[in-house]
Design goal:
The complex is a heterodimer of chains A (about 500) and B (about 350). Chain A has about 500 residues and is an alpha/beta fold. Chain A folds into 2 domains: about 260 residues, Aldehyde Dehydrogenase, Chain A, domain 1, CATH 3.40.605; about 190 residues, Aldehyde Dehydrogenase, Chain A, domain 2 (3-Layer(aba) Sandwich), CATH 3.40.309.10. Chain A is built from 16 helices and 17 strands. In chain A, the strands form 4 sheets. In chain A, strands 12-13-14-11-10-15-16 form a 7-stranded mixed sheet, sandwiched between helices. Chain A has a 6-stranded mixed sheet with strand order 7-6-5-8-9-17, sandwiched between helices. A two-stranded antiparallel ribbon of chain A has the order 1-2. In chain A, strand 3 and strand 4 form a beta hairpin. The longest helix of chain A has 22 residues. With about 350 residues, chain B is of the alpha/beta class. In chain B, the strands form 3 sheets. A 5-stranded parallel sheet of chain B has the order 7-6-5-8-9, with helices on both faces. The chains are: A alpha/beta (about 500), B alpha/beta (about 350). At the A-B interface, helix 9, strand 16 and strand 17 of A face strand 4, helix 10 and strand 10 of B.
Chain lengths: ~500, ~350
């Protein structure tokens, strides 16, 4: 974790890459060095400004099952190599973290907004300084390509802190009343698909508005949050303002249930989101939920096919499709179905699946064995239900968790692969004839997070965008994010918005 | 032509008051109300009672269950039999609200404002009727009941003005760091179940309905259990105000019996628990989690809502979604021509 250690010599990559590629172009390996990341063998919990062992462990209890104290391992999903051990926080640890956050709240919330802002600006700058290290770390722990962590995740993380830093002393002008007040302690539970970016989406607005936080990163990707604790130390953030407790779902449930938590923010599955909504029923806790999706990507017959294909690929294969707003249902107008599918298949044959640290890699590893099993099972269901499965000819590494980019055609709305969120690189292709039919099919889902529209006709974009029941609509683009742009779902994709002026509301008493 | 509108209003008011008195004297010997001075002694006309009915899908049905329950004034005197709606009535009302959602949410904000203002106009014209009903329902003096009805009329006017302003206040362009047009717009969440406040039978009722429909949501309203008559009469105002049928559906009955199926209904997008009692609010919120309804919790115990206070925008935004649309902007001027 030392900042900017000298570049380690290129170590031979143990991680695999495909030896054959159907692409006419061969690329020499271009691996990013992992020497820039200095991992400790084991990590404690970041509570009240310092790394501590689990209370349960110091009391001699706990083996990691249910209560705290045990150590868990986090692996590189591309190689199954153990990266480090981290601590399973138990109920007592969560309680300690919430109390630390409560203690810090009075002084933190009383700081002039301009001072809080400067802490956040410091954090944003340190993230920029350490972005290479953090990008490599994120790729190691998550399995996503370095191209994405370097060019998407990390720039957005820094931008998010920079954006909300500027709000800290302008809250009276945000349209939430003349003197909006923070809520208190925010309990935040984040997923594994964008570990550090989701941390930024949670922590930046919470701190800007004067709340203190206890954050639980996902059990398969705890490392970047633990590195963020070190960034808080470098920024001189007061003790207890940010607390990081690691562990599995039990830790998250303990945090959500803790009576000292005033605000719950969760990003993850719709199933867990509903459980949280039940758990906080009848309390005063304010809740925002950012949950699953089954986004429709609608391609009209006048769309420029090459651009649309790039958008389709970005929509479903960005981050191996492990994106809540993925365009996982392709709705293509019947008259251009064959043309679009031919072009899409040609494009998929050029995707490079393999070593996430290689700068030329398009698709990295699936985050965990569990997630791979879920994707595999859903794809098998798709086949069993009679949908036509296709993948490009691509060699997958023997170690690690991998899934080839996959298309399902001849899919109807009744197919499981058209209804369930797969959260993997699997695209279901459906057709439509009229714009009304496209809208009806796009909205035929309990989810409502994202949608895409591809057409050259402006009025059609606006008409269709107006009818889609989705929180984010990308027209002639897909999977674009920005800290100024509110993000969140309709219906069972959750409630509340993150990002922009809208994102402040979740952390204020309005 | 000597009948000016003002005189007409006065006459109407007098007639209403006379009828009220007759009704009251028939049912309560001890009524404090004096017979109107111009009523001929001994020959008071027998008044015509109103059959209070539900308002669902723009029509006035009875409860499908055939049940009614007694509604009394604050002194315990019988006022009317109100329909005691069933779970089936609640489901029918949701169907009506869903059917109306596309048209109402697709109407222009200006049009919705016109309709809400029309409701205020219709209500103003029937002021005396509502003054009498609110006085009976809440045990208020005519003066205080009048102030309540005036405030309710004004509340419709307030929300009529909001319909075409809320999007500008809470939406707008987002300055993203790239060549994209990016616009956030509020949209109505859909069908919203509203448990109207139990104590404030009319001003409270209007204060929870108006913001929900102002933004384009449609609603199923459960009226105050013990004082449902002003709500049922409001249906008659809505029916004559150009409000499309099904936008507001009004049910009377046992709040707990109707709230449970509404909270659990899979085609309801949001629920306002204002009228839920402390005991059931938690259960209703739990049931609402099943399809992640947007939930507006009741005021904390000991801090009852002040319906005369400035309502702010909270009840407008409670059932709004934000939709954000992106589109590439292209890059005119990238050659440095300096247009």
């Amino acid at each position: 974790m030392a900042p900017e250690t000298p570049m380690a010599p290129e170590t031979p990559m143990t991680s695999p890459r495909p030896t054959t590629s159907p692409s006419p172009f061969e690329y020499a390996p271009a691996p990013e060095s992992r020497g820039v990341v200095d991992l400790a063998p084991s990590y404690g919990l970041f509570i009240d400004g310092e790394f501590t062992e689990s209370s349960d462990a110091t009391r001699g209890g706990g083996t990691g099952g249910g209560t705290g104290g045990g150590l868990r391992k986090t692996v590189n999903p591309a190689t199954e190599e153990v990266l480090a051990e981290y601590t399973q926080a138990g109920d007592e640890d969560v309680d300690r973290a919430v109390r630390a956050a409560r203690k810090a709240f009075s002084t933190w919330s009383a700081l002039p907004g301009a001072e809080r802002a400067k802490y956040l600006f410091r954090i944003a700058r340190i993230i920029q300084e350490r972005s290479r290290e953090l990008a490599v770390l994120e790729t190691l722990d998550n399995g996503k390509p370095i191209r994405e962590t370097r060019d998407t995740d990390l720039p957005l993380v820094a931008a998010h802190f920079f954006y909300y830093a500027g709000w800290a002393d302008k809250l009276a002008h945000a349209g939430h009343g003349p003197n909006p007040r923070p809520l208190g302690v925010a309990g935040q539970v984040i997923p594994w698909n964008f570990p550090l970016l989701m941390l930024a989406w949670k922590i930046a607005p919470a701190l800007a508005t004067g709340n203190t936080v206890v954050l639980k990163p996902a059990e398969t990707t705890p490392l970047s949050a633990l590195f963020f604790a070190d960034i808080c130390r470098q920024a001189g953030l007061p003790r207890g303002v940010v607390n990081i407790v690691t562990g599995d779902g039990a830790t998250g449930a303990a945090l959500v249930a803790h009576p000292g938590v005033d605000k719950v923010a969760f990003t993850g599955s719709t199933g867990v989101g509903k459980a949280i909504a039940r758990q906080v029923a009848g309390t005063d806790k304010k809740v925002t939920l950012e949950l699953g999706g089954k986004g429709a990507n609608i391609v009209f017959d006048d769309a420029p096919v090459d651009q649309a294909v790039e958008g389709i690929v970005n929509g479903i294969f960005f981050n191996q499709g492990q994106v809540c707003c993925a365009g996982s249902r392709l709705l293509v107008q019947e008259s251009v179905h064959d043309e679009v599918l031919d072009s899409l298949k040609r494009r998929l044959a050029t995707l490079r699946v393999g070593d996430p640290l290689d700068k030329n890699t398009d698709l990295g590893a699936i985050n965990s064995a569990e997630q791979l099993a879920r994707i595999t099972a859903l794809a098998e269901t798709g086949e069993a239900e009679g949908a036509e499965r296709w993948s490009p000819d691509c060699a997958l590494p023997s170690a690690g968790y991998w899934f080839a980019p996959t298309l399902f055609t001849n899919v109807t709305q009744a197919h499981t692969v058209a209804r369930d969120e797969i959260f993997g690189p699997v695209l279901s292709v459906l057709t439509f004839r009229t714009p009304d039919e496209a809208v009806a099919k796009a909205n035929n889902t309990p989810y409502g997070l994202s949608a895409g529209i591809w057409t050259e006709k402006g009025s059609r974009i606006l008409a269709v965008a107006g009818k889609l029941r989705a929180g984010v609509v990308w027209a002639n683009t897909f999977n674009k994010f920005d800290p100024t742009s509110p993000f969140g779902g309709y219906k069972e994709s959750g409630y509340g918005r993150e990002g922009g002026r809208h994102g402040l509301e979740a952390y204020l008493d309005v | 032509m000597s009948d000016t509108p003002r005189e007409k209003t006065a006459k109407t008011a007098k007639t209403a008051k006379t009828a009220k008195t007759a009704e009251t004297s028939r049912t309560a010997e001890t009524s404090k109300k004096k017979p109107a001075s111009d009523a001929e002694p001994g020959r008071a006309r027998l008044s015509v009672f109103k059959t209070y009915k539900l308002y669902v899908g723009g029509k006035f049905p009875r409860s499908e269950s055939g049940r009614v329950y007694e509604v009394t004034d604050s002194a315990g005197t019988w006022l009317a039999n109100a329909p005691q709606s069933s779970r089936k009535d609640a489901r029918d009302a949701v169907v009506a609200a869903r059917k109306a959602f596309g048209g109402w949410s697709g109407a222009t904000a200006y049009n919705r404002g016109q309709v809400l203002y029309r409701i205020a106009e219709m209500l103003e014209g029937r002021r005396e009727q509502f003054v009498a009903e609110v006085a009976d329902a809440e045990g208020l003096s005519p003066e205080r009941a009048g102030a309540v009805v005036d405030a309710a009329v004004d509340r419709w006017v307030w929300y009529a003005g909001w319909t075409d302003k809320i999007a500008q206040v809470i939406g707008g362009a987002n300055p993203v760091a790239g060549p994209y047009f990016n616009l956030s717009t509020p949209e109505p969440a859909g069908v919203v179940a509203v448990l109207a406040p139990q104590e404030s039978s009319f001003l409270g009722l209007v204060s929870v309905i108006a913001p929900v429909i102002a933004t384009g949501c449609t609603t199923v309203v459960v009226a105050s259990e013990k004082a449902p008559l002003p709500a049922l009469s409001l249906g008659e105002v809505l029916a004559t105000s150009d409000l499309p049928g099904g936008v507001v559906n009004i049910l009377s009955g046992r709040t707990a019996e109707l709230a449970a199926p509404l909270a659990a209904h899979q085609d309801v997008n949001g629920i306002d628990l204002t009228g839920a009692d402390e005991g059931t609010a938690k259960d209703l919120e739990t049931a609402a989690a099943d399809n992640l309804k947007r939930v507006l919790r009741p005021s904390p115990a000991g801090a009852p809502a002040d319906w005369s206070a400035d309502p702010g925008t909270r009840r407008l935004t409670a059932f709004l979604e934000t939709k954000t649309v992106w589109h590439p902007t292209g890059s005119l001027g990238a050659s440095g021509s300096g247009y």
